[in-house]
Specification:
By secondary structure, the chain is mostly helical. It has helices at 8-30, 33-39, 45-67, 73-91. The mean pLDDT is 81.
């Protein structure tokens, strides 16, 4: 049986809840904007596909980066969650 640091379960649960929050924000506030942007001519169907692919590449790069972290896990979670909220709010201010 392996020994876990005292905060490992807490860190795991915090990471899972943060992922749920970030994915939820992206899915339910940003994704519905895509059809409107296509309709207004700001995006084409092809560019929307590229945007979606870049989004998943970002998830992959983020996961690879975080998997190598040795410390400051909570700080990265907090900054990532705050950045997601700020970018989502800023998207409401665009024309």
């Amino acid at each position: 049986m392996s020994h876990r640091p005292p905060g490992a379960i807490g860190t795991l649960l915090t990471g899972i809840l943060t992922l749920v929050a970030v994915m939820g924000i992206g899915r339910f506030s940003l994704t519905p904007q895509i059809p409107l942007m296509i309709k207004e001519g700001a995006l084409t169907l092809s560019s929307a596909g590229i945007l979606a692919a870049m989004n998943y590449i970002g998830y992959l790069l983020g996961a690879l980066h975080v998997s190598r972290l040795k410390k400051h896990h909570a700080a990265y979670l907090k900054v990532g969650l705050a950045a997601t909220v700020v970018v989502t709010l800023l998207s409401a201010t665009t024309g």
